[in-house]
Amino acid sequence: MTKRILTLVMASCALSSSIGAVHEMRTPISLLSKLDNINGSFHFPVARVKPVLFETASVNFWSGAYHRTAYDGLCPKRCDSCCSLGESCEAANCSYNFFGDICGCSGSSSSSCGCTSCARDGLCGININYNGCVACPNKKVPLAQLIFGKAVFGGQEAFSPDTDFRKFNYLLTATTIIAPKLDYKEEGVVLGMHAEHQVYDTKWRVGFNAALPIKNIEVTAHYNCDSVTWNGISYIDWPEVFFNQYGVRLCDTEHVVGFGDLETALVLGYDFTDRLYAEVVGEIKFPTGKRNLCPGRVYYVPAGNNGHFEAKIGLDAGWRSKKWVGITADAAFASVLSAVEKKAAQFKCATVRGIGPCVDAKIQYNYLLGHLDLTVFHPENQDMGFAVGYEVYYKMKDKAVFCTCNGADRAEAFLSDMDGVFNKPINPAVMVKDTDILSHKVRGQIFTRWDYLELYAGASKVVGGFNAMVENELFVGLDINF
Fold first, then answer.
1. Rounded to 5 degrees, what are φ and ψ at 30?
2. Is there a contact between 160 and 424 (Cβ–Cβ < 8 Å)?
3. CATH for 23-75+185-220+243-481?
4. Does 356 score more than 50 pLDDT?
């Protein structure tokens, strides 16, 4: 059969906010990123006046507001489209689709993990071993690349390889080129407190921190379409209508408002001198934020960890000169504990994620977070100055296990395909592919204090890494000390 492209539909959808049906793509909010989060700022702590309430204890309440946006992502460290490094993909028997007789896994073996064109006799049992491709760090890509695993993809790539696209409404859906264009915007306020007690006649001190964010997240979908057909008939809405009937909202703008996760921390500090200190910090994050219970809302970004508890442990230290400068550094390891999420199941050999029937999956991941900050004080007024800093954030790859009805965990399960055919194999490999994130962030801040009141304002920007959103953030804060 002569290969013809009868219809080419370019669908462009843009979103604002984080994605609930996919993995966590955001970096920590600047107001909550510092390990010993006294008041939302990251400069070297300024000397405070004598506590009002207690001789050896102090309490402060603080609040901050922030606004961050992202219009691009950073390219994955591997540019392959289907299999992870060292994996292989076995094609199913040949199936007819609009491009002619090709293997069920569409694509070419040279630039993506897929099947080569197969012979007409149907002998299509090909194993494709793909060894990755040249890394492209720091290259900007559309946010769709981070969400779906591809910036541009066909409707057929969300299905099992042997899906029959000859059925009504399937042919044009299969050959549709979907190119989501997404925008992300998040703003909110953070309410926090810090209490500290100096152990009598020692250099030890203990502290407690708590903070609760309130977020307004928006993912805007820009729906711009062009259609080219051989007979002049426009099929522009076919993919949207088709996926909508299965609850997959590819072109809906998402808006999430609510509380984020409650963060609490215990701090044990030791002051070597009045200009040198070190701390051990343990943190627990409680899942008080809104969760995504409908993976068909592919652009839904949870306000918190999507139902996960989080545990963190880290070290913090600081030194300052008599007048001019102060240096602080911290490093932490965090584990987002295993919890069940509603996910869109990816069929075996599918090449895009976030589109598919709903399935329960246990998700768990870890991350590392570190900072190095320099504070410069005004030589005539030690209560004001500016700070510049660097943040590195490395989120490790998600661990995913599908949950079966009897409570057992399986790495592979079976669900109905969206064409109503049952017992199609699904596998979490595509779901967790490229869910590891590395971001390099620079930040700056100015601050000033008057007796019991401190004000600060700053900005941060992601400048490098992979699989991360290119975030730009502004923030301001107010701290009152008692």
1. -60, -40
2. yes
3. 2.40.160.40
4. yes
pLDDT tens per residue, range 302-342: 999 999 999 999 999 999 998 889 999 999 999 999 998 88
Asked if the model's pLDDT at residue 272 lies above 90, the reply is yes
> Nearest 5°: phi and psi at 71?
-115, -10
Q: CA-CA-CA-CA torsion for 16, 19, 24, 26, nearest 10 degrees?
A: 0
Cα–Cα distance, 92 to 129 (Å, whole number): 15
What Cα–Cα distance (Å) separates residue 301 from each residue in 253, 258, 304, 341, 370? 11, 11, 9, 13, 25
Containing H/E element for 432?
A: helix 429-432
Residue 54 C-beta-side C-alpha neighbours within 13 Å: 11
pTM above 0.85, yes or no: no
Q: How far apart are the first and last CA of the chain?
A: 80
**7-12 and 224-229: which strand pairing?**
antiparallel
- Please report, for the chain, the start and end positions of each structural domain, with discontinuous segments joined by +: 23-75+185-220+243-481
